[in-house]
Amino acid sequence: MAKIIDGKVISAKVKAQVKEETDKLKTQGISIGLAVVIVGDNPASRVYVNNKKKACAEVGFESFEYALPEETTQEELLELVKQLNADERVNGILVQLPLPKHIDENAVINTIRPDKDVDAFHPENVGHIMIGDFSFLPCTPAGVMEMLAQTGIDVDGKNCVVIGRSNIVGKPMAMLLLHKNATVTICHSHTKNLKEICSNADVLVAAVGKARFVSADMVKEGAVVIDVGMNRLENGKLCGDVDYEACFDKAGYITPVPGGVGPMTIAMLMKNTLTSAKK
Ligand code: NAP
After folding, report:
1. Share of the chain above pLDDT 70, in %
2. pTM
3. Catalytic (active site) residue 96
4. Catalytic status, residue 52
5. Which residue among the candidates 117, 119, 227, 241 is catalytic per the annotation?
6. Residue 171 a catalytic site member
7. Best substitution site from 47, 189, 270 to test ligand 1's pocket, by max atoms within 8 Å of Cβ?
8. 77-94 tens-digit pLDDT
């Protein structure tokens, strides 16, 4: 039977540390601000933005929300990002993705000042991650690494498999595991023998975006199973990429959805914003 890696508990610890440092900075007259920009009315994005605002309040940051209409032009959005780049009250800028189709996400990401890019999506920060000399790590993979560390799971020399190769999750996840000396395999939709590769993993990270994609026969007995997936079912419930019930008895450790990687992502965003302010 698997031990549950509780993202709520671990993220609360991370946020408590951030709050402690924020309170200290406040006594020196330094306040910390995070700007969150949302374009259009994607309900999932709305939920994420509200959770981020709530977390800012918890740790003592000021949050500046910019909710722009769906028809906002790319130029208007870039203009706002430039204003935020120059705004001294703002230590971190987060533009909630996905953006409406008429806006080029890369153009927006590339306009955010790298030292305020708390999502770590700017090519300059991506480059730093590749080299292993970084200040910011993308929040979701960083959250996974924090969960592993706080659970006492050392990936050194372990066989780690990441399903998914997105720029936001899969690729940086693989890179962070590699920096910790894991032997890493990245799988994607063209991968042959997926089941066989996964069932040899000591640590299996699922970032596919398909509900209950990872079945018990893809999991090695005693493996660590990390579920990054956040899929909304027809009944409105949130569901991971892992068939949790089926894999529970086989895995050694498992993360639930909700209450796993999701809260960690937000906690790491707070940590990145603090890092930016300290700089
Ligand atoms: P994405 O950009 O859609 O990437 C999905 C990846 O899964 C792609 O690399 C794709 O391969 C791969 N894939 C799809 N079908 C596959 C199959 N049959 N076999 C093997 N690989 C397959 O998604 P993402 O942004 O990385 O997000 C992944 C999941 O994580 C989503 O559920 C998302 O909501 C969730 N997420 C959660 C958090 C959090 O805070 N918990 C944060 C971000 C994302 P190809 O590249 O070949 O297409």
Report:
1. 100
2. 0.97
3. yes
4. yes
5. 119
6. no
7. 189
8. 999 999 999 999 999 999
